[in-house]
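Re: that chain you flagged

S.,

Sorry for the slow reply, it's been a week of failed gels. I finally had a moment to sit down with the sequence you sent. For the record, here it is as I used it:
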Amino acid sequence: VTLPKRVENERATVAAAGSAINLERLDDALALVQELRAGKDGGNTLANLAKSLADADRLKDAETLLPFLQGGNDRDKAIAGIARVKAREGDIAAAKSALETIANSRDRGRVQSALARTPAKKGETDDAKSVALSIQDTEFRIEALLRLASVANDNKGNGDFDALVGEAVKVAAGEDKKDSRDKGYLKIVEALTDARKTDAAKQLVDRIA
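Prediction finished late last night. Pasting the structure tokens below so you have them in one place:
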């Protein structure tokens, strides 16, 4: 079946922009924004571009793309990418404000995971843990707990480290799907290995069939 020329052009633009993003040639991808806006399927690519720009500390460029994303998961992904960087940079108010506009639980989890580190760095472990455990998406709940464990380890808080890793293990063990459960365990093994807790890491490896 021969596709209309317009559809072929739209698909080619999406493919070209996606390739540029993957290669971190973000200016090349930005040059295709107007064409992506005009196409039917450009929203996801624009969201990926906004997230990549934010990750590259180009927040202003990322934010210029938000008006082109009218709603739904594409906009949530872009806002989450920007808010996550703002949280990392210490602009907590902006990150929390952005969080209120995100409906998708996975994208909310991305931002909450970054926000959980703020009280942890101040030594407010209980508050940080509370934020982490409130994350609905289990992958990012585990990520947040392991981020907090890393902070505790850096601060020589071995008791806090063990407790936070234990919470992460509970979350992973509660996953119904084996692939998700094993993915969680692997992240925890990496964290334990980085902290030089090799015996605990080996014990957890045994749970992965």
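What I noticed first: DSSP finds 13 helices and no strands in the chain.

Talk soon,
D.
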